[in-house]
Structure formats: structure tokens, C-alpha cells
Design goal:
The protein is α/β, with parallel strands linked by helices and about 290 residues long. It has 13 helices and eleven strands.
Length: about 290
């Protein structure tokens, strides 16, 4: 089933099968996704296609410098001498925060409670968000004009981050020829909640120990990189979902290795983005010892 979903998404999103698969795993585990790339590279289409394939409700918020938190969360208004709540576009399954780093820090922070607690507070009243609730945020490279850096507290709430793959000449030709036929269709035959509830994934203690070793290696060699407890839990959650996508009932160390570059990329700010994946492989993964009894 998931292979068919990936194939269907790949008709809309050319040349990004690995990113699609990891994104599906993140959504299955309730994680948030950050896509960093230049404008016009297909980030919005990517988010729409994945959401439609999983039969989830979708809303898009275009972030600008004058966007207010109330534009996202909602607000109270007076009608017939009575205050009523007007809920904002954040009340959906998947919200696309388009060009998140173009907004002010105050507006960006409107997502903090939503991403962690799956709820929002409007004028001291707390409202639960739909289940599942996923943020897929896009951001322009930080050296472009009109952008501001996302705070570390917000970056840590994103489970994974990546940039879309550069298209080959053949893939680009296919995209150009099929541009006018582009249409995203919602898949009404899938129930994400039932899929997640019906799967039980096992993790060996040695896999947990391997995840702990990741933090030890990072702390010992790169004190400027913060690997939080939330980050470690995200590794466990997305690895379980990846096992589901791969048709397995257990998590392997290879699953951990596959997801780690996506987990750590936005948490490493001391290395140029184009070198981060190689850095993770050479300076972290290759220095982690595998338990002897594994």
C-alpha cells in the first residue's frame, strides 16, 4: 500500500522518493517537517501532494512580515453583545507554514504551543487541535533578503528537515512537458489513524543503546550541537514509522542511520548546509560503536 502511495506522490513530485518516504514516516509518527530551499523549487506542491495522498485536511498560511499571531490562531470578536471565537487556519490536520522565516519572531512563536501540545490558546482559552496535527514549514535560505533565523526552541520541535533534490535533465524535461496536466487528487481510500493503530513495532534494547550513543558522541565532540531528549524521542518515533513503511515489525540500526541526517540537519548550525549530511556521516555515525551483542 505504501509503495503505491509513494509512486502516486512521485507523479507530482519528481525525483524525491527518499524525501517522500521519510516525510511519510514523519507524518505517521506525528512529527513536523521543515523544508529549506529556494523559492519556486516545489516545496508547496510537495506538502500538498503528501497531504492529499494521506487523505488529510490541508490549509496554507503565507508568512509575511506583517502577519499577526491572531491571523494564525484566531481571535475573539463581538457579535450581538456576545464574544465568539473565530478559529484561525491552524485548525486543520496539516498546516503549511509557507516561508515561515519571513515572519517576525512574535508571529513564528504562535506555533510553539501548537507544535508541542497540539493545542492553542486564544484569549486565555485553550482549544485542542485536530488529530493528527502536522506542521509542514518551508523556509528560504537565511542569506536571502527579508528572512530571519528561526529560534532554536522552534527548530527543536521539527522532527526532520531537508532540501528537495536537484532534478536531472530528464526529470526536468518530464516536469516541463507535464506542467499543464498537473492536478493533485485526494486519496479517499486511506485512514491514517487505523494504519498507525494497527501496527506494533518492536525495538531491541541494543537499538535504544545505539540511540543513546548518538547523543554521547555529539556531546563529547561537538558541544555546540544540542541533542535534546525530544530529539531522541523523535528518532525512536520516526524509526518505528519507517519500519512500518518498509513492511517490518521491528526497528534496526540501519533504520536509525537512515533517519539521523534528517533529524540532525536543522540542529547543526555551525556547518554549511550543503556539507551537513557528509558531516553527520563522517563525524557522528562512523564514530558510534555498535553494541557487541547486537
Amino acid at each position: 500500500m505504501f509503495d503505491q502511495i509513494i509512486q502516486n506522490i512521485s507523479k507530482d513530485i519528481v525525483g524525491n522518493k527518499k524525501n517522500i518516504k521519510i516525510s511519510l514516516a514523519a507524518i505517521l509518527s506525528g512529527g513536523h517537517i521543515l523544508i529549506e530551499d529556494l523559492p519556486g523549487t516545489g516545496k508547496t506542491t510537495f506538502a500538498k501532494s503528501i497531504t492529499a495522498a494521506l487523505n488529510l485536511d490541508f490549509k496554507r498560511i503565507q508568512f509575511t512580515s506583517d502577519l499577526l499571531p491572531s491571523d494564525i490562531l484566531g481571535f475573539n470578536f463581538l457579535i450581538n453583545d456576545k464574544f465568539e471565537i473565530k478559529k484561525g487556519p491552524i485548525f486543520t490536520n496539516v498546516v503549511l507554514a509557507d516561508e515561515l522565516n519571513r515572519a517576525s519572531p512574535k508571529t513564528q512563536s504562535a506555533f510553539l504551543e501548537a507544535m508541542e501540545e497540539k493545542s492553542v490558546t486564544i484569549d486565555r482559552e485553550t482549544f485542542k487541535l485536530p488529530d493528527p496535527f502536522i506542521v509542514i514549514a518551508t523556509q528560504n535560505p537565511s542569506d536571502l533578503s527579508g528572512t530571519s533565523l528561526l529560534p532554536e526552541s522552534q527548530l527543536d520541535r521539527f522532527m526532520i528537515s531537508f532540501s528537495l533534490e536537484e532534478l536531472t535533465n530528464e526529470q526536468q524535461l518530464y516536469l516541463l512537458k507535464n506542467e499543464n496536466n498537473f492536478e493533485i487528487k485526494k486519496n479517499d481510500n486511506i485512514n491514517l489513524e487505523k494504519i498507525v493503530a494497527s501496527k506494533e513495532i518492536n525495538i531491541n534494547d541494543n537499538v535504544y543503546k545505539y540511540i543513546q550513543e548518538i547523543k554521547k558522541v555529539v556531546q563529547s565532540n561537538f558541544s555546540e550541537i544540542h541533542v535534546s531528549s525530544r530529539c531522541l524521542k523523535q528518532i525512536v518515533a520516526i524509526s518505528k514509522s519507517l519500519a512500518i513503511l518498509n513492511g517490518k515489525s521491528y526497528v534496526t540500526i540501519q533504520d536509525i542511520k537512515d533517519v539521523l541526517p534528517y533529524i540532525l540537519k536543522h540542529r547543526i548550525n555551525t556547518i554549511e548546509k550543503k556539507y551537513v549530511v557528509n558531516f553527520i556521516d563522517d563525524e557522528i555515525l562512523k564514530k558510534i560503536s555498535i553494541p557487541d551483542d547486537f
